Amino acid sequence: MDSLTQIALGSAVGVAVMGRRTALWKAALWGAIGGTLPDLDAFIDHGDAILNMTRHRAESHSLFVLSLAAPVLAWIVSRVHGEAALFKRWWLAMWLVLVTHPLLDTMTVYGTQLLQPFSDYPFGVGSVFIIDLAYTVPLIVGVVAALRLNNPRGLAWNTAGLVLSTLYLAWGVGAQQHATQVARASLQAEGINAEGLLVTPAPFNTVLWRLVATTPTQYLEGHYSLLDDSKRIVWTVHSRGAELIAQHRDEPYVARMAAFTHGYYSVSAAADGQLFVTDLRMGQEPSYTFRFNLGTAAARANGGHRPTLEGFRPDMATALPWLWRRLWGERLPSPLVPPATPRLGLAPAG
Predict the structure, then answer these.
(1) What is the extent of the structural domain holding 65?
(2) How far apart are CA 15 and CA 71, in angstroms?
(3) Are the C-beta atoms of 205 and 175 separated by less than 8 Å?
(4) In this structure, are residues 239 and 217 in contact, taking their beta carbons and an 8 Å threshold?
(5) Residue 180 domain-assigned?
(6) 96: closest CA among 167, 13, 155?
(7) Cβ 266 vs Cβ 292: under 8 Å
(8) What is the distance between the alpha carbons of residues 122 and 134, in angstroms, rounded to a whole number?
(9) Is residue 340 part of a domain?
(10) What's the pLDDT tens digit per position in 267-305?
(11) In the listed set 125, 158, 190, which residue is the last one of a domain according to the structure?
């Protein structure tokens, strides 16, 4: 999740655990610090763009590593404030602050390596977008109320914020499961035997869902809103670059992307021979956050080109109005997909 959300969650957890055993501002401050610490790994340069992506949310997000760090941070906090008698309580607070950070990140689709150093498997539920104010605002309101009121009523506001935000996560999982069932039924109706099906929320909400189905040669993208008047899904069909995947799948960077994305990737080549690998999980056709230039065959062979990030960002002036209208159930084609792109599901179902 975004930094503001992690700060808000850390503060809320710190206040909830410490209560009135210490000054609320201390619990909120150290909760915010602890909630931010795991993401400092973003400042580490691993040498190239793909490694920087796939090594983010690794050891710093490990439940094992963070559990070891919790008593160290608690010792520092308790000594700084002369509260050695509260060390065990600070330990509990800091542990919960630290581990809730990667657990929340796991609810996004990015990939969080919770089991480092024993496994580098990237966990990702994908039921909430990386920025969602419906999750963040209750936390902020609860913490602010606790600090301003500085009494049991304020603590109740903080608790309410945590409960509401947690219920929102549960809602997201339920909505995702419903959208998944709709997508599977649509694929079956179209006679498509998909290898994989990815269902993630469109930006900033859990009402509109982006659907990506993969076959050995293609990927299909569609959208489904909980407010749609029917369960008909229009799929746009795109090439995955099957021949290029077969040719380059054993190259280290392509293999790393295949594993990190759980197979939701495509490979393409430019006219000058440059090879591109794209993470299909984050973005919307044809604008993807993580699209990497691997260079030409010659450059890759002699190590003269390190992968560079060349992601595309959509035009917000076009994308945001479309997002809002599509969320409310208006049947609109994706704004940046060329009209000539093959489409399935245009005829009413049934």
Answers:
(1) 3-125
(2) 18
(3) no
(4) yes
(5) no
(6) 13
(7) no
(8) 25
(9) no
(10) 999 988 899 999 999 999 999 999 999 988 877 777 667
(11) 125
Tokens for 249, please give them: 């799948």
pLDDT digits (tens, 9 = 90+) for 145-191: 999 999 999 999 999 999 999 999 999 999 999 999 999 999 999 99
Domain boundary among 125, 152, 185: 125
Please give the Cα distance from 235 to 219 (Å, whole number). Answer: 9
- Measured CA to CA, the distance from residue 152 to residue 201 in angstroms comes to 36
| Number of neighbouring beta carbons within 10 Å of residue 312 | 13
- Taking only the tens place, the pLDDT of each residue in 98-114 is 999 999 999 999 999 99
Mean per-residue pLDDT, 112-123: 97
**What is the spatial distance between Cα 270 and Cα 247, in angstroms, rounded to a whole number?**
15
What are the tokens at 299? 């450059």
Q: Residue type at 153? A: R
- Residue 304: the pLDDT is 67
User: What residues does 179 pair with on adjacent strands?
Assistant: none
- Tally of structural domains, the chain: 2
C-beta separation of 265 from 280 below 8 A: yes
From the list 221, 253, 256, the residue with the least C-alpha distance to 240 is 221
Q: Has residue 350 got a pLDDT over 50?
A: no
Q: Report which of 294, 292, 272 is spatially closest to residue 283, judged by C-alpha positions.
A: 292
121: buried, middle or exposed (CB in 10 Å: 19+, 13-18, 0-12)?
A: middle
The distance of Cα 148 from the centroid of its chain, to the nearest Å, equals 32
Alpha-carbon distances, residue 109 vs 124, 200, 224, 262, 343 (angstroms): 5, 7, 18, 11, 26
| Structure token pair of residue 281 | 């999980």
* Residue 185: inside a domain: no
Closest CA to 202 of 53, 110, 326: 326
Alpha-helical regions (H) of the chain:
3-18, 24-36, 49-54, 63-80, 87-106, 133-149, 152-189, 242-248, 252-260, 297-301, 316-327
| 55 belongs to a structural domain | yes
Question: Using an 8 Å Cβ cutoff, are 126 and 200 in contact?
Answer: yes
CA 134, 139, 144, 150 torsion: positive or negative?
positive
Tokens encoding 120: 């580098």
